[in-house]
Amino acid sequence: xxxxxxxxxxxxxxxxxxxxxxxxxxxxQGELVAIVDTSPETLQDTADxxxxxxxxxxxxxxxxxxxxxxVVITTPTFTHKDLAVTAAHSGKHILLxxxxxxxxxxxxxxxxxxxxxxxxLQLAFMRRFDPEFQAAAERIEAGEIGxxxxxxxxxxxxxxxxxxxxxLETSNxxxxxxxSHDWDCIRWLMFDNYQRIYVxxxxxxxxxxxxxxxxxxxxxLASIRFENGGLGSISSVCPCDYGYDARAExxxxxxxxxxxxxxGQAVVVCTDRDQGLITPIYRTWPKRFEWAYIREMEHFVECxxxxxxxxxxxxxxxxxxxxxxxxxxxxxxxxxVLMKEVMS
Amino acid sequence: xxxxxxxxxxxxxxxxxxxxxxxxxxxxQGELVAIVDTSPETLQDTADxxxxxxxxxxxxxxxxxxxxxxVVITTPTFTHKDLAVTAAHSGKHILLxxxxxxxxxxxxxxxxxxxxxxxxLQLAFMRRFDPEFQAAAERIEAGEIGxxxxxxxxxxxxxxxxxxxxxLETSNxxxxxxxSHDWDCIRWLMFDNYQRIYVxxxxxxxxxxxxxxxxxxxxxLASIRFENGGLGSISSVCPCDYGYDARAExxxxxxxxxxxxxxGQAVVVCTDRDQGLITPIYRTWPKRFEWAYIREMEHFVECxxxxxxxxxxxxxxxxxxxxxxxxxxxxxxxxxVLMKEVMS
Amino acid sequence: xxxxxxxxxxxxxxxxxxxxxxxxxxxxQGELVAIVDTSPETLQDTADxxxxxxxxxxxxxxxxxxxxxxVVITTPTFTHKDLAVTAAHSGKHILLxxxxxxxxxxxxxxxxxxxxxxxxLQLAFMRRFDPEFQAAAERIEAGEIGxxxxxxxxxxxxxxxxxxxxxLETSNxxxxxxxSHDWDCIRWLMFDNYQRIYVxxxxxxxxxxxxxxxxxxxxxLASIRFENGGLGSISSVCPCDYGYDARAExxxxxxxxxxxxxxGQAVVVCTDRDQGLITPIYRTWPKRFEWAYIREMEHFVECxxxxxxxxxxxxxxxxxxxxxxxxxxxxxxxxxVLMKEVMS
Amino acid sequence: xxxxxxxxxxxxxxxxxxxxxxxxxxxxQGELVAIVDTSPETLQDTADxxxxxxxxxxxxxxxxxxxxxxVVITTPTFTHKDLAVTAAHSGKHILLxxxxxxxxxxxxxxxxxxxxxxxxLQLAFMRRFDPEFQAAAERIEAGEIGxxxxxxxxxxxxxxxxxxxxxLETSNxxxxxxxSHDWDCIRWLMFDNYQRIYVxxxxxxxxxxxxxxxxxxxxxLASIRFENGGLGSISSVCPCDYGYDARAExxxxxxxxxxxxxxGQAVVVCTDRDQGLITPIYRTWPKRFEWAYIREMEHFVECxxxxxxxxxxxxxxxxxxxxxxxxxxxxxxxxxVLMKEVMS
Lengths: 344, 344, 344, 344
Prior knowledge:
The structure is a homotetramer. Chain A is α/β, with parallel strands linked by helices. Chain A has 13 helices and 15 strands. Chain A has helices spanning 14-26, 40-49, 59-65, 80-89, 104-117, 131-141, 168-171, 174-177, 180-190, 285-288, 290-306, 314-333, 339-343, and strands at residues 5-10, 30-36, 55-56, 70-73, 93-96, 121-123, 148-156, 194-202, 219-226, 231-237, 245-252, 256-259, 267-270, 277-279, 337-338. In chain A, strands 12-11-7-10-9-8-15 form a seven-stranded mixed sheet. A six-stranded parallel sheet of chain A has the order 3-2-1-4-5-6, sandwiched between helices. In chain A, helix 1 (14-26) links the parallel strand 1 and strand 2. In chain A, helix 4 runs parallel beside helix 5. The radius of gyration of chain A is 20 Å and the shape is globular. The interface between A and C is large, with 40 and 40 residues. Strand 14 (277-279) of chain C pairs antiparallel with strand 14 (277-279) of chain D, so a sheet runs across the interface.
C-alpha cells in the first residue's frame, strides 16, 4: 500500500468539520494531520473533536512546522486567493471550498499558481459526487431525456448566513455563498456555458433579523440563457427557515427529469386526519449530501494518490464566480448581462 | 331520449346522501323521486337536502304511493333481506349496499327473488368503479404483473361504527361492515375465490370508548388462501382515528402493483424543519371514492336503461358474506376455516 | 326550482366538448341548448355527441333563432372580442375562454360591453376551481406559509398547438395560449400584481416539426417582479411530449407549498428492477383538471341563477393579457419590461 | 488511541464482502486481518479484493495462525452453531449472521458458549442500525403513534436463494433466510414477543426454475399474535424478481407509521406519457441497507473496544429462530402454532 495522503485543514469551521469527518471516518487512504484556524476557539474545538495535535493559527505556520501533501481550504471567500496561491507555491494539492474567489482575477491567480506549481486543484462542488446528481448527469449524457432545453436548479438554506457571507463586498452574497452549487450544476447538467443572465432579487426578512447590509437580499431568481440556446433558472432563498432544499428539474427534447426531493427519510406518520401525513424534510446540507461529501474527499485523495486530474477544477470554479458577477451586475443595474461583459 | 330512471332511496342516512348526491348532481339519466326512512328526523334531513317531497316511513308505503323503477337500499345489514326481497317482488331493480345480508340464506333469498322477478341486482362495491382500482384490475387482467401470487388489501376507517354495526348478531362486525370491500376486491383482483381463511382479532380501544359488546374487535388481520394457491390478507382497523385508508398491494409472478395511497391532495407544505412535510390524508370514504360513487350510480342507471346485467351482483355479495362468516368462525374458534365449511 | 340556465356553445372544438360534457353530465342546473361553429364538420361532430339539434354557423344566427341565457366562447383568441361584445350586447352572460383577447383594447371593449349590458363575464381560468389550487389559495390566504415571497408556476403541454396558436399575430404564442393559466395563478396566489417582466425564449423543436412561423418558441421562462417586491417565474414548454404538467411552488416567509404533481393515478407498478417503479403521469389537461372544469361550469351557472358576480372576471383576464404583452416585448427586445409600459 | 479491533471473517461470500467493505472503508477502529472460507475460489476472490494475506480454509487454522479479537460469521446457517461455539471458546467476540442457527438447541449452545467465555455476541440484524428503522423505533418508543396495535413487515428478495437456503433441512427456507429480519423487526417495533403464529405458503415459481426441494415455497404470509394482544404479519416473496423490497407499517392507537419505500433514488424521469414516471427501485439489499451495514459494524467494533453489550444479541436471534420454527410447523400442519409449543 502506498503511503497515506496527508491533509491539513485550512479553516476549522462547520464545513471543515464535515470534511474532517469524511477523512477520519470514511476515507482510509487519507490522513488528517494538521488544522489551521485564526480563531483559537474554533481551532481547539475542531482539533479536539478529531484528536489532532498539530494546530496552527496560519497556513504559513503549518507549512513551516508540519508535513502534509494537501490542504482543504474552507475559510471565508475573501481569503481564498491568498491561501490557495500560498498552498500551491508550497507544492500542496488543494481542495478549495466554493465560491472559488471574490472575482475572476482571484480565480486566475489560483489557477495559474496551481498550474505553475504542478499541484492538483479540486473545487468543492460536492453535488458532482452526490449519487443522485451523478446518476442524473450520466443518464442525461446517455441521451435519456434528449438534448436539454431548460434546467431549473434551486438551493434554499435554512438559516441566516454569517455577516461576511451576506455582504457583496466580502462574498458576493447568497447567489455566491448559497447558490455556487447551482451555478456549477446547471453548466454540468446542460453540458453548456451561460451566455446571458438576468436576476430579480428581494429582501423580505432582513429587517426583522437586524440585517442592514447594503444590497442584502434573501430571495433571488436568476434567469439564464446558455450559449446553445438552452434556458435555465436558479432559485435562491436564504434564510428559508423550512429546511435545506436542493433540487433540479431538467426538460429535454425527449422528456423531463427531476433530481432530489424535499423528503429526507422514508418514515411517514399520520396521527391527525385534519393535519395529514408527515414526512421528515432534509434539515441540513451535511445530511442531504452525506455521501457526496464522502465521495468528494475520496476523489480528492485518490486523484492525489494516482496523480490524476480531479473531475471538477479551477475552470468550473471560475465559471461559477463569473455567473455570480453577471448576476450581481444584473440585479444592481436592472438589466440582462452578457457573460462576455464580465469575462472579457 | 328515453325516460329517466326513477329511483327511491330506502334508508336516508350517511351513505344514502352520497348516493342521492350522485344521482341529483352527476347522473342526469336518473331521477331521485322518493325517500324512505323509519326515522322521521333522518328522513326529513335528507329529503330536505335534496328537495324531495315523496317521503315514506316504510318501503311498503312507498311502493303503494309512488312511481319508481328502482331502489337503492342503504339500511342496516339485518334489514337487507326483507327489503330487497320486497323490492324485487314489486318489480323494482335494486342497488344494495354491502354487506349483502347477515348470512348466506339471506343472500340466497335475495338472489332468488331478483331472478324470479326479473329485476337487476347490483351490489354497492364501489371500488369496482374507482378509476384507480378499475385501471389496476384491467392491467392485471392484461397480464402486466403476471399471475397474481399474493394480495394485501386494507380498509381502516376513522370513527367508531354505530352500535348495530359492531355487534356480531346484527352485522358480523367490522370485517363485514368496514371490510366487505376488501373481501370483494381480493376476489376481483386475484381472479379467484377464497378456499381457507384464518383470522386474528383484537380489541384495543373498545373499553375506553364504552363498548362492551361481546366479541367486539377493532383490529383484525385475515389470512386467506385462494383456490388456485394464491395468498391474501385483509387488514381491518376501525376506529383507526388517523383517516380513511383504503389500499391494496398485489405481487404477481412478474412484478408488484400498489393501488391507492394515503395522501389525498397534492398540496404539500413545510413550515417547520423539525416537523417536516405535510400532505393531506383522505379523511373520509365519500372523498376517497368520490368518482367511484358517481360511476357506480351511472352504471346502475345505465344497466336499467339498457337492460344489461350489472357487472357486480348477487354472487359477489354472497362471496363477501361467506368470507366474513368463515373469518368470524376462525377467530372465535382459533383455527383456519375452509370456505366449504360455511358454503356447504 | 327556478328554470334551467340555457347555454349556447360558441365554438365546438376540443375545449368546447369538455364544457359540454360538464354541462350535460354534471351541472343539472344548466342546459346545453345550442352550438355554434363555423366549421360544419366540427359543429356536426360535437352536436351529435351531445344530441343537440340547434346548430348554427354563426353567433348571429344563433341569437336570431334560439333562446338562451348565456354563451360559452371557446373560439380562437383573435375572434374573442367581436363574439363577446356581440353576446354582451344581446344580453347574454359570458363564460370566455383564455386568453381573453389579443390586446388590451380587446379586453377593454369586452369589459365595457358586459358592464353596459349588465351581463356577467367569467373568464375560464379553471385552476381557480381545481380542488388543489383552491385549497392552496385558501391556506395561503389564511397565512399558513406567511407572506408569499416567490412563486414558480409551470404549464408544459404535450402536443404542438394549431398554427394560429403559435403565431404571435393571431394568438401571442405559447405564453398566451398555454400559460394564461400561470399568469392568472401567480397573481391569484401572490395576492399581488406584476410590475416587471423579463423573458428568455427558445425554439428547439420547431424546425423538425415543420414550423417556420416567425418568432416561434417552444420553450420560455418568464421572470416576474410583483408590485410589493415578490418574485415569480413561469415555465413554458410546448410541445413537451412527456405529458401534461401543471404545478406551482410558493415560498412564503414561514415555509414552502407545492401544488400539483406529475403523477396522475395512484397505481404504481414495478416489473423490472433495472427500470424501476412506474406511475402514470397526467396525459391531458381535461383529465388533470376534471373537477376544475365541472366546478367552473357550476360556478358560472350558479352565478347566473343567483345573479352574483363570478369570482374570476374581466380584470383577471386583462391582467393575464397584459402580462403576455410585456413578456412578448421582453423577449423580442431582450430587456425587462415594466407593466406600466404596456398598461399605460 | 487504543489498538484497533482485529477481525477475522469466517465465510467469504456475498454478505462477507459487504462486511469487509464496511470494515476496510468505513470503520477505522476495526481492522480486517484474516479471512476463512472452505472454498478456495471464494476465499481468493474476497481476500484479493481487500488485499488480505492471512487466508485460511478453516476457523481452526485461523485460530492457530492468526491474531484477532473477533469473528464475523457469514457461513450457511447449518454451520453457525459449531463455528460460533468454537470462536467463543477461543475467546473471540462474535458478529453472527442471521438466522442464528437451525434450531433452539443451536441457539442455546451459542448463547451459553459466549456467556461462559465472556465474549460479546451480536446478531447481524442490520435493520436495527438503519437510520429509518432506528428513527422509527425511537419515535414509537416515544409514544408518537400510541401503543402499537398491528405491524406488517415485508421482505421480498429478487433472486432464487442457493440450494441450501431453500431446503427446510439446511436452512428452514425463506421465512428464515429472507425474513429473519422481519421476525426481529416486529418484536423490536412492537416492544413485545410473539405468542401464536399461523402461516400460509405457496410455490409459484419453483417448477419453472428447476426447484424440486420438498416443501419449497416462494410466497408466504405469516400471521402473528403478540403476547399483549397486538397483531402482525410477515410477507415473504423470493424470488420476487422486481427488486429488493423491505418495508414495515405500524398502526398504533394514535396513528400510523410507514417505514421504508420501494423508490431507491430521487431521480424521476418521464419520456413517454403512455408509460408514465419512472423512479429507480432498490435493486439489492447492500444498497438498501448501505448505512445500516456500516453502523452495524461500527457498533460491533465500538462494543468490543468499550466492553459494552451489543444492543442486539443472542436472545433476539433465538426469538427469530423460534418464530421460524413455529411458522414452519404451522404451514406444514395447517394450524396456528403457539410459541410455547416450540419454546418449551
